[in-house]
Design a protein that fits this description.
It is a single chain. By secondary structure, the protein is mainly α. The chain has 5 helices and no strands. Helix 2 (about 20-45) runs antiparallel to helix 5 (about 100-120) and helix 4 packs antiparallel against helix 5. It is globular, with a radius of gyration of 17 Å.
Length: about 120
Amino acid sequence: NTRHTPSHLSSKNRILNMPSGSFLSYLIGAATAVGGSIGYYKASSVPSLVSGLGFGLGFAVAGLLIDNGQRSKGFWTAFGLSIVLGLVMGNKFINSGKIMPSGILTVLSAYSVYFYYDRLTYV
């Protein structure tokens, strides 16, 4: 028997042995929920609160799907949410030029789109 190290695994096996992807969903979910809550607290912005909690819940559901064996559904959910969040926050960043929160969430969303697209090619 030949010992297999990660460098000897096929590309598909390397992807499947990587972290599940739920951590990124939970991270973005928490960031959007906290950000929306801060937006509401600082500026009484109901749209910030609703969208932050909505995206937060959506990403949490995606993470739970991934953790509970429904990886394809979780990846698709996180992928779709990442695209929408990136478009919304990217537009806000272009219009405001503010790094926090729109610039940070635009970059995080772009990475998330790449990350989940990569995972979807192997599911």
